[in-house]
Amino acid sequence: MDIIKIIENTIAAFFGIDAAYFALAAIGLNIQFGYTGLLNFGQSAFMACGAYGLGMTSQYFGVGMWWGILIGLALVVILGLLVGIPTLRLRADYLAIVTIATAEIVRLVVRSVRFKQYFGGSDGINSFSASFRNLSPFDPGAQYGIRPFQYSGYSLWTMIVGWSLVIIFSSLVYMLMKSPWGRVVKAIREDEDAVRSLGKNVYSYKMQSLIIGGVVGMFSGMIFALDRGSVQPDNYSRDVTFYVLTALVLGGVAKVRGSVIGPMMFWGLYVFSDNFLRELTKDKPFNLFGIGIIQKSQVGPVNYMLIGLGLMLLMTIRPQGVFGSKEEMALDGR
Amino acid sequence: MQAKFGDEVTDTNNSKSRVFAVGRAFAVLLAAMFMFSAPGNAQAADSDNSIIVSVQNQTNNNGVSEKKPVVGVKISVTDPAGIAVGEGVTDSVGSVTIPVPAKDDYVVTLDVASLPSGVTLIEGTKTVVNIVKDAFTTNAKRVTFFAGTSGESGASLMDRIAQRLVDGVRLGLIIAICSVGLSLIFGTTGLTNFAHGEMVTFGGLIAFWFNVLLGIPLLIAAPIVIALGGVLGLAMNGVIFAKLRKRGIGLISQLVVSVGLSIMLRNMYLYQFGGRTRPLDDFSLQVAKHFGPVSITMRDLSTTIISFIVLMGVAGYLQRSRTGKAIRAVSDNPSLASSTGIDTQKIIRIVWFAGGALAAMGGVFRGLDEQVGFEMGSGLIFLMFAGITLGGLGSAYGALVGGFLVGLLVELASLVVPAELKNAPALLILIIVLVVRPQGILGRKQRVG
User: Fold this and answer.
1) Which terminal residue of chain A has fewer beta carbons within 10 Å of its beta carbon, N or C?
2) What residues contact residue A332 under an 8 Å CB cut-off, 6+ apart?
3) A-B interface: how many C-beta pairs under 8 angstroms?
């Protein structure tokens, strides 16, 4: 077993591009769920808005890649209104059901053959990132840095942009939550009726929070799409939202540092478990007392099983995660 | 095995016993998993990376689309530069698995000359498919080529509507069966259980285990499967959710726990069963019988009739029996019900048992209807949510009516929208209902708050 390799990969994962795009998605979800108490289970759809907004520019509209941000913003607003209008007046679990259903509609539509000419069907969209690639100051062929932090020029470029966005948005959210707007939103999480009695338009604040969180999620989808150089519909399934939620809960809900460090820990743990199990089963299936426990093809499911179990344990034992405080969790439904 | 732990739950040692609660749940589930692991282990041994190509001849028989495998078609896989990676010929089920060295970009080409005479690819189908690296969401990337004529031709509109109505009734009844438990659990405990779809999958997979791997006839196995489904429901409640309720953990927390449970169970099924969908042995090969414009297999006709009888039974039970009345009372107002001397926890246990059993039954029917796979239930959960929201969250009869209507709607929608999008209208209905009448058809306004 190559322990050095496992450790190297794990350390690299803490700062990798996956942690960066998860952190962006988690920052967005944190605005909605952590601060406002909106149970958005459709963050993957907001991420898809960004990715597809970017992908569709060059592929189908024939405009520059930067229009993708505007298209993405438009899509996010439409989506936010679509899920927000019917549900924001209702109880939290309605929003959860509707957002998850909407995310599923979005995924079905973008992967359908019928709309293939717009969204590329299940093949997705490729080759849209040229102008982003050209901006890179690094030589795309060369390797930069030393192990375990060794990246190709293009990966390094997406990572720098990704983590810069994380820093920008986490600072913005930090300031936003210190502002009067943030105080109102947090008050809504604690007691909606009290805020209403103070003459605030709760509905409008919730809608703003949903859309602002969606916009941050949109940038997450963009970074992901730019890094992969392609947009795949199945990368925006509901499970992505749940993994982001797990990462956020791990870090600590309603804390800016929780929403950044949570995803880093999530990917560190995930890559560790994945690498460890792959090394374990590399040559032959792993047996315990003669019973086959795990073989190569089962590594993926076992990783995700552990994520599910981790989410359950976190919510029962330490719902505030690593950095959160219990007082700041909006966890009462009825 | 660890039965001792749970019995000594005390309030002085909260977090520790909480660990045990979930730990025990995992231990039980692990045990259950390995229990049904023994015969099935070889199943998951798919090769590391591969492209599975299938060639299907799609024909339309009176509005029912049937797929027939096309045998002996030559398929080749090259890398983007055109260097051959592998090739193969489709087998008796029209499918060929071509191993590839890594998850990378490939080009899949169908040799048109090797198609049997009289078979042509559907207009607009490419003979060359480009696969990009990220398209490998699992180790095996599936590519399907469709031959034959596309679109529904031959049948008149009325005939097609009649056929869709029959299919819709069938699907609607299955959804209704699956979602009764979901709605009653919500009504009695307030929990929106995202793991309910996994209870449906449980039914399908255990039926597969009994029927295909152990060779027990389905008619004998089904009652056992349904009972086991009930036990799973009891276990979910007893080991996890009852404990959480007892500690006063909020409903949203419980909801997120159910999400974690759903992820865990689904991947346990994937771990054990593999990613393929497979048919049950019994009743799987049946020729559709024609009744006027409508064709249906005897299997589907039987499941439809049984579903209907079961649902009538459930409705009658809730309406007339003492326990049924108690369930409705708890569902309506738990604290009031408990103050009138109803044992709320007992009612909740009954609801979980019945909900799990009905979900497992739905899973068996769904497995007969389609095939058995690790995602069969999680694919239905959206329709179940749509159904119970339409009917009225928490209302017992609402789930029956709503689930039925949603199934009907999904099948009728496929007349208008492409089959791949037929679930979308049902989900849109969910959103529209929430705008127009959030309490649903049979729900009460005060619940929505």
Assistant:
1) N
2) B250, B251, B252
3) 195
- Interchain contact, A86 vs B15, CB within 8 Å: no
The CATH class of the B50-147 domain is mainly beta
B41, B48, B135: residue with CB nearest A296: B48
A285 within domain boundaries: no
> Is the ipTM of this structure higher than 0.85?
yes
Along the 334 residues of chain A, how does pLDDT read in single tens digits?
Answer: 788 989 999 999 999 999 999 999 999 999 999 999 899 999 999 999 999 998 888 767 777 778 888 999 999 999 999 889 888 888 777 888 889 889 988 998 888 888 887 888 877 888 787 788 888 888 877 888 877 788 888 889 999 999 999 999 999 999 999 999 999 999 998 888 899 999 999 999 999 999 999 999 999 999 999 998 888 888 898 899 999 999 999 999 889 999 999 999 999 999 999 999 988 888 878 877 777 778 888 888 999 999 999 999 998 888 888 887 777 665 554 3
Asked if residue B194 lies in contact with residue B381, where contact means CB atoms within 8 angstroms, the answer is yes
The torsion of the CA quartet A50, A53, A58, A62, rounded to 10 degrees, works out to -160
pTM comes to 0.80
Helices B396-413 and B322-332: crossing angle in degrees, nearest 10, is 80
Give the three-class secondary structure for B176.
helix
Q: B430 to chain A: which residues are within 8 Å by CB?
A: 97-98, 101
